[in-house]
């Protein structure tokens, strides 16, 4: 995705190339407002992120389990080239520990883009569901995230429509 806001989606495919010729690549988008999404796919390239490749916007309540292979100073488990200013923010984003060298531009940002060990990743739902966002789905209000009771995503949180 190159434009617009992105919400309530996930990626399970590999993105980028092993030659690291892809720039500003993300598991969900290149650069946009992103909320309530997750990535399972491996991401390769330069300035890459598990969720978004580069950002000057908002990334909220997302998680990544994919392996991030890129330039350590401009890659991250959540955001690759992270350039936060007054018009942008990160909040409640997590990545699987050991899949990247940091959460955003190679650094962890507590409460914004940080790692969780494998043993705690399924509980990421408790964290990202703080102040649970709801959407209308089939005529009723439902929580955006739900528990994976049918093992669709190996016990990790899934989205309301899955």
Briefly say what this structure is.
With 162 residues, the protein is mainly beta.
Shape: globular
Strand order of the largest sheet: 2-6-11-15-16
Describe the biggest sheet? 5 strands, parallel
Number of strands: 20
Give the structural class. mainly beta
Estimate the mean pLDDT confidence: 85
Unreliable sequence segments: none
Proportion in helices: under 10%
* Gap from first CA to last CA: 21 Å
Strand proportion, as a percent range, falls in: 35-45%
Radius of gyration over alpha carbons? Answer: 14 Å
Number of helices: 1
SSE pattern, N- to C-terminal? EEEEEEEEEEEEEEEEHEEEE
Give a topology summary.
Elements: E1 6-7, E2 10-11, E3 15-16, E4 23-26, E5 34-35, E6 38-39, E7 43-44, E8 46-49, E9 52-55, E10 58-60, E11 63-64, E12 68-69, E13 79-82, E14 89-91, E15 93-96, E16 113-116, H1 124-128, E17 134-137, E18 140-143, E19 145-146, E20 158-159
Parallel strand pairs: 1-5, 2-6, 3-7, 4-8, 5-10, 6-11, 7-12, 9-13, 10-14, 11-15, 15-16
Antiparallel strand pairs: 17-18, 19-20
Give a written overview of the molecule.
With 162 residues, the protein is mainly beta. The chain contains 1 helix and 20 strands. The strands form 7 sheets. Strands 2-6-11-15-16 form a 5-stranded parallel beta sheet, with no helix packed on it. The protein has a 4-stranded parallel beta sheet with strand order 1-5-10-14, with no helix packed on it. Strands 3-7-12 form a 3-stranded parallel beta sheet, with no helix packed on it. The protein is globular, with a radius of gyration of 14 Å.
């Amino acid at each position: 995705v190159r434009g617009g806001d992105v919400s309530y989606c996930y990626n399970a495919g590999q993105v980028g190339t092993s030659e690291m010729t892809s720039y500003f690549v993300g598991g969900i988008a290149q650069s946009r407002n992103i909320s309530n999404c997750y990535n399972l796919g491996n991401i390769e390239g330069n300035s890459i992120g598990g969720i978004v490749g580069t950002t000057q916007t908002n990334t909220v309540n997302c998680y990544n389990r994919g392996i991030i292979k890129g330039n350590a100073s401009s890659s991250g488990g959540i955001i690759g080239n992270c350039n936060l200013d007054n018009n942008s923010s990160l909040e409640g984003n997590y990545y699987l520990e050991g899949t990247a060298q940091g959460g955003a531009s190679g650094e962890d940002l507590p409460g914004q883009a940080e790692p969780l060990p494998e043993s705690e990743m399924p509980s990421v739902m408790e964290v990202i569901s703080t102040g649970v966002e709801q959407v209308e789905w089939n005529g009723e209000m439902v929580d955006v995230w739900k528990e994976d009771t049918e093992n669709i995503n190996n016990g990790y949180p899934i989205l309301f429509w899955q």
